[in-house]
Amino acid sequence: MTQDKNIFIHNIYYMLSYAFQSLRQDGYRNVSVESFDEIYDLFAMILSKGIATQLKQGLYKEYMDRKDDLKVLRGKIDIQQSMRNASMHRQVLTCEYDELSENVLLNQIIKSTATLLLRSGKVKREYKQSLKKELLCFSNVDLIDPKQVRWSRVRFHRNNQTYYMLIHICRLIIDGMLMTTKSGEYKLATFIDEQHMCSLYEKFILEYYRRHYPKLNVSASQIPWAVDDDFTKMLPVMQTDIHLQKGNDVLIIDAKYYSHTTQSQFDKNTIHSNNLYQIFTYVKNKEYTFKDEKHRVAGMLLYARTNEEIQPDQTYQMHGNPISIKTLDLNKPFKDISKQLDDIVKEYFSL
């Protein structure tokens, strides 16, 4: 899918900066002007700057349960164990107490992910040095097996919300780029895997339109089923990727990131059937919500462009609704990507 690796890597940064607004802060300003030969360098630089920013605010800490033999009372006494200590002529009390510690899951994930990058032979020395410098402040934080991270245990709230972007970058690295060699060592894959790129691609387009088109109602909304008797038990949720609306004009975009933009059978290239069925279903059910009001509802499948010779670029009129199939070239400079996204809404909403 890539032709100019440096352009593609920079575009991943731009996509991340839309998906995570914190990447637009001053601390990350230099990232956009750096030249990256490897995706690992980009992630190492983002992680290093993110850790540095977090250290200025202080590492997140939680109260942890402790149980130790102490010479002075702290917290609650374990009576039975303290009596055993006395019987063995040990002049200590066994105490149970809470201690504020930075050795928590969020910091363990960051330290373990940074260590993973440090072990990679593809990360440049300058980025490794920055990471090593920041990790000096993690001396009291344990390393954990990156593959054993239980992401369901990660919780964000008011006191640790500054970790949101950092942890998602860590997960992108761990889930999307981690493989195990025969010897049991870790290595990083060539690029982010398709599943994670698809998620980032969707989020980027959604946040791009949110940021640049305040006149539009931009969301990833759900569409209700157009049933005759209100009975919807066991019907799947219709969750859109990008839902753009101005008055009664609606454009529903399904963002798709595949290795192949078309399916091939018997030497014939066609649109992915499931994608087409899905966007058509979204459009027709959304149209039903307007009842007798004047409206326009259209759908679009927006694929990330590949290097394949055949690329879809069509608009079909289906039962009164335009359904477009287009591609977005992530190998072009970001200004070209931005222009194509702008042209889509300008054409449909006349902005």
From TrEMBL:
Q: Which organism is it from?
A: Holdemanella porci
- At the top level, the lineage of the source is Bacteria
User: This chain belongs to which protein, by name?
Assistant: 5-methylcytosine-specific restriction endonuclease system specificity protein McrC
* Entries under InterPro entries matching the protein: McrC, McrC_bac
Gene Ontology BP term (one): DNA restriction-modification system
Keywords in alphabetical order, please.
Endonuclease, Hydrolase, Nuclease
Tell me the GO molecular function terms: endonuclease activity; hydrolase activity
Task: Give the Enzyme Commission number.
Answer: 3.1.21.-
Corresponding gene? mcrC
Q: What class of enzyme is it?
A: hydrolase
Pfam families recorded for this chain? McrBC (PF10117)
